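Feature request, filed as a ticket because there's no other form

It would be nice if the structure record came with a short human-readable summary line next to the tokens. Right now we just get the raw output. Example of a typical job, pasted below so the devs can see what we mean:
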Amino acid sequence: MEPSVMLPTMLPGMGCACLSSMYLSLSSLQSTDGCVFPGTLHSIREALASAEAVLGCPNCPQRFLTALHNVQMLGMFLMTIAERYHRVMDWIEQEQHRATAGNEKLSFQLGNLNCRTAHLHSGDCLGGYSVNLDPVEWRRLTKRVVRDEIRGNELTRRSSFIGLLDAFVARQKQWHIDSPPTDMPRNISMMNRGLSSELAEKDATCLRLAREARSLIEKIDYE
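Raw output as currently delivered:
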């Protein structure tokens, strides 16, 4: 899907802007030049927040077409985010090798999240600190940050990739149990009704996308 393609804010009768929201998030992520630390992580955080809202939308499941678009966009989103995390890790490796070859130190910024000024820690913020590290130590710390972004962190309580992925899987399994939208094409409804729950779960495109995204994330080297 090309970013230049214009989509309507809503589909007729949709009652929400989920399609537009996910399209804009995907376009923004795919149009970013390069994946760097920590800039790309901020873009991913914003996209994850938008995806959580789409995941919990009460309007999309009411109609077959909107439910289908919701699932397709979220599945594509999960794969895109997983690929972006891999590219950030590749950039960290390249930066570490570049600094090692040039006998350079690399700067790592710290922020005290326990103080009253727990925000972006930019400029002259009293809660922000920078340290110059050996490239190998810098790589170890930056990869740990990415790991926590992916898996979640109890202290920050932000949206995480694994949290969104688990919630998506749980929602899809529930959708497979619930009654389908009344406008679902009869041939699809009858075809699904003839499958066992185990076979339906194995063959479901939505859950297959989730498994592929999880497999991609599990291949990341955090060391």
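Something like this underneath would help us a lot:
Helices lie at 18-31, 39-55, 64-101, 135-151, 161-177, 186-193, 197-203, 205-218.
Residues 18-23+34-185+192-218 form one domain.
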